[in-house]
């Protein structure tokens, strides 16, 4: 115990010393209590983090000890004068509403970063008229168009796809930027500002002032080659990584299975690829919902894949259909470029020569009229063979709209492909392909790659009196619209693969839209997931940022949904499902076997779990640049994410500089006084602590 540290001595001194030691032994409790009284921790915050590529870094960070500033609530752009020049107590922590989170304001603060300690953005529950922090020309340097391929179409020279883009996501800020939810914490901060910091009639507020401290120090600096080189420097037993490549897994499946141990070209095999992207992003880390940007496309493709299961079993088409869901497309086409790379190098079950054509589903949920648009590449169509097959795909799509309420048309003018995975296939070789989208030229999506691209952007609303289970089955107008799009896609794919005309119906996207945009923790998603993965289901939508943790929630959800929608339920037990190769008619080389929870039957508490057999696989969606060690590559994505120790935000009252210096001075004076007293006691110890001792020896 602490008391055991004490030596012999006078009883009263021992009691005093014991009390002092116990005080220090309990100092942790005291310090925690004091800290809680000084600071108010903010829990509902999300940071902007640092990302790096081959040439530079973007994003935000704090200093290693966090950045602290006096809170200033920005009420208008003109109000910037106070934190940037007039305010007497810099640096300032600027709190602003989302309507003021503009490029103009952020760049002014960036240019005066010596007076700005950080920024906190209040994200409201309603969306502004428009907001896109992405660039006006997404992925412009890694698509197919360049000085060597359609130079007049490169860099969005003819079509600006995202005119609302302000580019904030691709700027670097030397101060932390956090988002706050519009809740009680935000109201508390505003009240703290009003009580302590608000200037009256232009006069400086009096101390103490309300301050905020943000911690988001990033380990990586400069660019990807620098941080990857530092990762490789191992001077310690436990080296500390400073950054990680962005990446995940692509999900793919086919109507006829492939042996996943036999790679390369397949003789007499022709494949139609149906593709969609899985990921999205936002300015702030992991708050991207990608409703129009990604979910509308991959939900449509999942529904089409489900519709094709029965018809392709009953009357198999002459060509195979491969469904591909690409991860990391936001960051220079990570997923599609990896699949193309694997095909080129004999690391995939087919190669590029096996591809007959490509149909990609882009943004398809926000209609500006009654038409959807069929985008193709004008450069590759100069090849007559490619042009003929593109025309055939267009005809198959247009003839599949029978009985539906919209038309499919080609853009009126010759223009490049919109940002799409198809561009990465065209970089490798001319392949006939179409990108299906709801926009003729510029995106209809007013919130491209922002946290406002959510369920509300698709008008996905439910009556307030419905239970979660009833909402899951409620058919919204958006669900009806995407059902029609999925019907067209399924019909066209079947015809493109060589099947006869077929009225593919019985398509539902209602449950998928609810699960991917409202709540993933619903009865349907629970039934199709593995028991060990049930914890990834949340009462909120998944995050669609690709990140660095392999097998993200969207990847797993799409993998299991695609397997359940296109595969077959078997009678295998759980142990047989885990080791199917021990059975005579099963093969893990041809199929994947997934044990899923199943539904809870009426009048029962036990789930009917079962084994699904499906030709659904995961393949790496990590840029080839990291496989090749070419961290400065101009051909492949080089995006990495910096590591950090912790993210934290808190507010407190800060005293004036004079009071702080006075407190420091008093503390120093007490320290020196203590040293002098200690020295005096030490030199006079023989007098102060002398005691009468008995003689060393005595006769008895």
UniProtKB/TrEMBL annotation:
<dbReference type="InterPro" id="IPR041084">
    <property type="entry name" value="Ncstrn_small"/>
</dbReference>
<dbReference type="Pfam" id="PF18266">
    <property type="entry name" value="Ncstrn_small"/>
</dbReference>
<keyword id="KW-0325">Glycoprotein</keyword>
<dbReference type="GO" id="GO:0007219">
    <property type="term" value="P:Notch signaling pathway"/>
</dbReference>
<keyword id="KW-0732">Signal</keyword>
<keyword id="KW-1133">Transmembrane helix</keyword>
<comment type="similarity">
    <text>Belongs to the nicastrin family.</text>
</comment>
<dbReference type="GO" id="GO:0016485">
    <property type="term" value="P:protein processing"/>
</dbReference>
<dbReference type="GO" id="GO:0007220">
    <property type="term" value="P:Notch receptor processing"/>
</dbReference>
<feature type="transmembrane region" description="Helical">
    <location>
        <begin position="661"/>
        <end position="681"/>
    </location>
</feature>
<dbReference type="GO" id="GO:0005886">
    <property type="term" value="C:plasma membrane"/>
</dbReference>
<dbReference type="Pfam" id="PF05450">
    <property type="entry name" value="Nicastrin"/>
</dbReference>
<keyword id="KW-0472">Membrane</keyword>
<feature type="domain" description="Nicastrin small lobe">
    <location>
        <begin position="47"/>
        <end position="220"/>
    </location>
</feature>
<keyword id="KW-0812">Transmembrane</keyword>
<keyword id="KW-0914">Notch signaling pathway</keyword>
<dbReference type="InterPro" id="IPR008710">
    <property type="entry name" value="Nicastrin"/>
</dbReference>
<protein>
    <recommendedName>
        <fullName>Nicastrin</fullName>
    </recommendedName>
</protein>
């Amino acid at each position: 115990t602490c008391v055991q540290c004490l030596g012999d001595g006078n009883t009263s001194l021992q009691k005093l010393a014991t009390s002092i030691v116990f005080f220090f032994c309990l100092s942790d409790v005291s310090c925690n209590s004091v800290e809680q009284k000084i600071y108010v921790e903010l829990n509902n915050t999300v940071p902007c983090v640092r990302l790096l590529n081959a040439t530079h870094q973007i994003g935000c960070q704090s200093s290693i000890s966090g950045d602290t500033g006096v809170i200033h609530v920005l009420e208008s752009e003109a109000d910037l004068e106070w934190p940037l020049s007039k305010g007497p107590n810099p640096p300032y922590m600027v709190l602003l509403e989302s309507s003021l989170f503009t490029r103009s304001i952020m760049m002014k603060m960036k240019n005066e970063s010596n007076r700005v300690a950080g920024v906190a953005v209040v994200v409201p529950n309603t969306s502004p008229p428009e907001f896109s922090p992405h660039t006006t020309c997404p992925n412009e340097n890694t698509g197919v168009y360049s000085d060597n391929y359609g130079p007049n179409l490169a860099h969005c020279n003819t079509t600006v796809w995202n005119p609302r883009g302000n580019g904030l996501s691709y700027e670097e800020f030397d101060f932390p930027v956090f988002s706050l939810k519009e809740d009680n914490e935000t109201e508390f901060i505003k009240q703290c500002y009003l009580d302590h910091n608000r200037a009256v009639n232009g006069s400086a507020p009096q101390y103490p002032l309300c301050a905020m401290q943000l911690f988001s120090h990033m380990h990586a600096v400069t660019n990807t080659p620098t941080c990857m080189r530092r990762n490789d420097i191992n001077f310690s037993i436990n080296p500390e990584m400073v950054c990680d490549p962005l990446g995940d897994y692509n999900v793919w499946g086919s109507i006829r299975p492939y042996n996943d141990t036999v790679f390369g070209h397949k003789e007499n095999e022709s494949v139609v690829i149906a593709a969609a992207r899985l990921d999205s992003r936002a300015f702030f880390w992991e708050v991207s919902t990608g409703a129009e940007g990604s979910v509308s496309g991959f939900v449509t493709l999942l529904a089409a894949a489900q519709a094709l299961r029965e018809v392709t079993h009953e009357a198999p088409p002459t060509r195979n259909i491969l469904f591909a869901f690409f991860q990391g497309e936001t960051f220079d086409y990570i997923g599609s470029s990896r699949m193309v790379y694997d095909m080129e190098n004999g690391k995939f079950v087919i190669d590029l020569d096996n591809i007959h054509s490509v149909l990609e589903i882009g943004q398809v949920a926000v209609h500006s009229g009654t038409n959807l648009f069929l985008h193709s590449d004008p450069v590759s169509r100069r090849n007559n063979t490619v042009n003929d097959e593109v025309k055939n795909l267009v005809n198959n799509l247009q003839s599949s709209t029978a009985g539906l309420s919209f038309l499919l048309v080609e853009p009126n003018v010759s223009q490049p492909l919109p940002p799409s995975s198809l561009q990465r296939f065209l970089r490798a070789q001319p392949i006939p392909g179409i990108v299906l989208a709801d926009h003729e030229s510029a995106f209809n999506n007013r919130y491209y790659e922002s946290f406002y691209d959510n369920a509300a952007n698709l008008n996905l609303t439910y009556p307030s009196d419905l239970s979660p289970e009833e909402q899951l089955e409620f058919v919204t107008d958006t669900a009806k619209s995407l059902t029609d799009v999925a019907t067209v896609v399924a019909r066209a794919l079947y015809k493109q693969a060589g099947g006869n005309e077929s009225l593919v119906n019985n398509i539902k996207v209602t449950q998928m839209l609810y699960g991917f945009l409202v709540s993933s923790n619903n009865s349907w998603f629970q039934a199709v997931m593995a028991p060990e993965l049930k914890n990834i289901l949340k009462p909120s939508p998944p995050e669609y940022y690709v990140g660095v943790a392999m097998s993200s929630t969207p990847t797993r959800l799409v993998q299991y949904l695609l397997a359940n929608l296109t595969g077959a339920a078997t009678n295998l037990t759980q142990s047989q499902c885990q080791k199917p190769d021990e059975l005579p008619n099963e093969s893990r080389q041809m199929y994947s076997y997934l044990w899923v929870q199943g539904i809870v039957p009426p009048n029962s508490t036990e789930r009917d779990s079962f084994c699904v057999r499906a030709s659904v696989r995961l393949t790496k969606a990590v840029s080839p640049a990291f496989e090749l060690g070419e961290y400065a590559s101009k051909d492949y994505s080089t995006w990495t994410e910096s590591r950090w120790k912790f993210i934290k935000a808190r507010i407190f009252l800060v005293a004036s500089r004079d009071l702080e210096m006075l407190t420091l001075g008093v503390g120093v004076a007490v320290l020196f006084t203590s040293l002098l007293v200690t020295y005096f006691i030490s030199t006079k110890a023989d007098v102060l602590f002398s005691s009468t001792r008995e003689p060393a020896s005595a006769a008895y």
